[in-house]
Structures are given as structure tokens and as C-alpha cells.
Amino acid sequence: DDGYTFTIVSSNEQSWQFEVKNLTERDEWITGIQEQIMQSLQSAPSRKNTLDDVNSEIAIVRTLRKVNGNFKCVDCRSENPDWASLNLGTLMCIECSGLHRNLGAHISRVRSLTLDSWPAINLSVMSAIGNHTANKVWEANFHNHTKIDSKSSREDKEKFIRAKYEQKLFLAPLPDSKTSLSTQLIKAVLKNDLQHFLRVLAYCTPDDINKKYKLNDSRTALHFSCAVANPVMAQLLIWNNIDTTLQDSHGYTANDYARAANSDECIEVLVSNDSSQETSTAKTLYLTKELFVTSNKERDRNHSSIV
After folding, report:
1. What's the pLDDT tens digit per position in 241-250?
2. How many distinct helices (H) and strands (E) make up the chain?
3. What pLDDT, on the 0 to 100 scale, is given for residue 55?
4. Range of the domain at 243
5. How many of the other CB atoms lie within 10 Å of CB of 125?
6. 178, pLDDT greater than 60
7. What's the rounded Cα separation, in Å, for the pair 160 and 97?
8. Is residue 307 part of a domain?
9. Domain count of the chain?
């Protein structure tokens, strides 16, 4: 008997691997470790020391649980979930949050509703997506599969979560197989179709996300997201490894587009992700005129074809 192994992954991506004799012993260790972590977190000095901080925490929890589907864990349907996946835009229970951490931050960025800080853009992403919308993407092709619930074993939960997000077994096929993923992503931005944007994004590699729009047009999906002042899509692209420094055919970055669009939210997203390129007033004024001539034409045609 080779025994059973499990891995603990910390918030800074350090990992420790353990080996035990059987599944029962493994589950006992995992439960004990989780309980110890929660006790340590709850006994640690809180960052919320004032009444305003406490009220802010309560407001965050209430706001996010009001989003469609968020009253239950996105995966096992346990009630009152208090953990989140930022890039998936979902709420989950503590046990599923541990399994999401095991996937790695490149798949699921796990945060606590009550123990972590919540910048405005993170709240915006979470409010825009939610469990209902996320599952319309990640469980769209769920036919003939069995959904886990709160009473499912940890092993079954892990298999399900890996199949859902790592192997992507339940994604629906994209209807347009002839158009490149990068172009489909840009179309979704211009149509402001978040659900389709998430579906295409799930299929994209970093290379797909960073591809330019056309042979003679070097804009990326991030340029367009900033041009139409959509900070949620901009943040999701950044979390999926889009290069914020890429320039269009005239040398303009997404930061320039955000400034031309007067989108403080997009600027904040870019600056917080180390994209604080200087933009001169003259450059911004010129870009403003060019930007809205070209981008509005694209948006006006988005119900037909923009390729």
C-alpha cells in the first residue's frame, strides 16, 4: 500500500505534502488543519478595529450574498458561503475554498469575505458575475453528470471541482468555431456580453488573450475594454495574464485608452496592476478623437460582423 497524499497550499503559494495510511486518516488530518487555521485567524488581532470597519464587513457580505445564486456555495450548495473566488466571481463554502486553493491562483483566486480587504474593483467583479452566471458558463454542458452537495465526501468534491475548473469538462462548446478566440473576446467586449466574455475567456490561453485584433490593427481586448470604459472586463483580462503594456498600431497602450475615455475605474485597475505609463495631455487629446471615431464604429457594427 503506497498510502494517500494531500497537499496544503498557503495564500502565498507555498505548499507542503503529507502522506497517510488511508482516506479516513487523511480526512481527519485535513479537518484538523482547517479547524486550526480558522482558530488562528479568528484569534489573531483583527484589522477591523472600528465600528465603521465592522459595518463595512457586514455590508460587503450582505451585498455579495444578494447577487443571483450567491446564497449557496457555487459548487456544493452549502448555505451562507463566506469565501470567494475573485476571478471566477463566485462565493463558496470553506471546504470548497480549500479545494479551489489547491487548483492554484492561476485558476481560482480565493479570498475571505470577512478576513481579507476588498478593493472596489474586486467588489465590482464579484457583483457583476455571481454564482448563477458563473454556473451558466462552467456547468453549461453538465448533462448526465452528478452534482455534488454539502454532504458529498471531500474526495468527490475535489474530483468535481477539478473536472469543472481544471479540466473544463462542463463548458459548452463555442458556437463560432471559425473566428479566432481573440476576436470573439473582443466582440464580447464590444457587445458588453459578460456571460459570453466569460465563456470565451475560459477557453483562451494567454497567447489567445494577447493576440492583436487584426493584421493591421494591434489593439487587444484590453484596449477595447478601456475604450468602452469596462473596468470589470479589464480586470478579468489582467487576472488572465493579458500584457498591460502592449501598444496599438499608433503606440497607444490600454492606459492611454482609459484616459481618453475618462474612465477613472479603468485607470485605477491598470495602475494597481503596475501599468502606470505616463500619458501627455497632447497625446490624450489626439487619442480621444481617434479612439471614439474607430471604437464607436466597431460598436455600431457589433451585431453584424466586426472582422
Report:
1. 999 999 999 9
2. 14, 5
3. 55
4. 181-300
5. 22
6. yes
7. 13
8. no
9. 3
